[in-house]
Amino acid sequence: MRFDEAYSGNVFIGSHPVFEESEAVLYGMPMDWTVSYRPGSRFGPTRIREVSIGLEEYSPYLDRELEEVKYFDAGDIPLPFGNPQRSLNMIEEYIDQLLAADKFPLGMGGEHLVSWPVMKAMYKKYPDLAIIHMDAHTDLREEYEGEPLSHSTPIRKVAELIGPENVYSFGIRSGMKEEFQWAKENGMHISKFEVLEPLKEILPTLAGRPVYVTIDIDVLDPAHAPGTGTVDAGGITSKELLASIHAIAKSDLRIVGGDLVEVAPIYDPSEQTANTASKLIREMILGWVQKK
Questions:
Q1: Separation between Cα atoms, residue 109 and residue 40, nearest integer Å
Q2: What 3-state class would DSSP assign to 65?
Q3: In total, how many domains does the chain have?
Q4: Which of the residues 82, 138, 205, 257 could staple to 179 if both were Cys, CB 3.0 to 4.6 A apart?
């Protein structure tokens, strides 16, 4: 798999044309093979790129422009349709290569299971890794209907790999009772319903540590992001999610990578979700890449 060649499709606004000169790599993981409700997130990365043309390259929140950050849009990983295990293996191999090249990886999903091999690769390079997870759902199941490779399992998998005490979930408002009990019994941090204020309390405790941030777009209320696979009422506003991304950017965390997943454009003809995701990606690039 080559990730250092120019992508032939639409690229995210402001993308630098040369891989070798870039600090960060934006890439897509177009997989929705294991979703339990509505498929379509495999089309998320492409649409996020396409609507980015409507963005300004300047962020008034961070007083920074995209031309100040050299990042390379590598396009999508060519994942084999309907083959979860091979897809996950390919993603892990891809991230291994990016980290070996000392690049900051910023991914776009795809269902949330795609974050699992990324976090697994990150842990190989950063053994003291911590995870910040923003989501409507716990994603702490061991399996779904007997299938351990499921979009409802990635946080359980990474918690068992790096230790539950190193995983911090925010905005959670949905999950099985057993998932919440498991988190409590094993020392995992879960902030129900809210993100920004509990996040601000946690950030100082993670100062200096390598941190990977994974954001499921459904942490937003469906009023702000209807285009996702599993909508869940009672979420946060896009303003709060932007503020949370900025709080991380202004903290003393050592951000080593991140992703934004579960954008399913087909369920939002207004394209509000894709446009919101595009702006979130811009702020992640401008706020986090220099935190490597």
A1: 10
A2: strand
A3: 1
A4: 138
Question: Is 151 known as a binding-site position?
Answer: no
Q: Is the dihedral of CA 53, 212, 159, 204 positive or negative?
A: negative
Domain of residue 169, CATH code: 3.40.800.10
Task: In whole angstroms, give the CA distance from residue 150 to residue 140.
Answer: 10
Q: Which helix (H) or strand (E) holds 181?
A: helix 177-185
Inter-residue contact 137 to 183 (CB < 8 Å): no
Question: Is 259 annotated as ligand-binding?
Answer: no
pLDDT tens column, 47-74: 999 999 999 999 999 999 999 999 999 9
Gap between the Cα atoms of 13 and 56, Å rounded: 9
CB 110 within 8 A of CB 44: yes
Query: Does residue 10 form part of some domain?
Result: no
Annotation-wise, does 76 bind a ligand? Answer: no
Distance of alpha carbon 20 from the chain centroid:
24
Is residue 112 marked as binding?
yes
* Other Cβ atoms closer than 10 A to 281: 26
Asked whether residue 73 is marked as a ligand-binding residue, the answer is no
162 has a pLDDT exceeding 60? yes
- Say whether 189 counts as a known binding-site residue: no
Residues 115/153, Cβ–Cβ less than 8 Å: no
In a domain, 19, yes or no: no
Question: pTM, whole model, 2 decimals?
Answer: 0.96
Cis peptide before 187 (omega within 30 of 0): no
CB atoms within 10 A of CB 232: 17
Contacts of 10 (CB under 8 A, 6+ apart): 46, 49, 50, 53
- Sign of the Cα torsion 257, 166, 219, 76 reads positive
Three-state DSSP at 285 gives helix
> Which domain, by its residues, includes 224?
24-291
CB 120 within 8 A of CB 90: no
Cα–Cα distance measured from residue 226 to residue 271, given in angstroms and rounded to the nearest whole number: 9
